[in-house]
Amino acid sequence: MSADLDLSPPEVPEPTFFESLLRYGLFLGAIFQLICILAVIIPTSKGHEQPVETSDPADTRSTDQNRKAKPPVQQIRQKMKKESKKKR
């Protein structure tokens, strides 16, 4: 009975150059993907982020005044029509 069982390791052919190239290419691709995922998950330096609503109240006042200083387009057209009528 023991003569019938062959316990020697199976013969595995040596990998070819292209198989090795494919294997290492897949490893490099997996490492690259992990680096990309980590770059998205882990925040980078804080210097590039803009502060959220930390501006001075004076800045908001000046932007409000600029908005109020510009009349709407319809008012400008109405004034031009009135002036043209006055000239007649």
Automatic annotation (TrEMBL):
It is a single-pass membrane protein. Coiled coil: none annotated. One of its GO terms (cellular component) is membrane. It is found in: Membrane. The chain crosses the membrane at residues 20-42. Residues 46-88 are annotated as: Disordered. Residues 58-67 have a biased composition (Basic and acidic residues). Its main location: membrane. Pfam families: UPF0239. Belongs to the UPF0239 family. This is Mannosidase beta-like. The lineage of its organism: Eukaryota, Metazoa, Chordata, Craniata, Vertebrata.
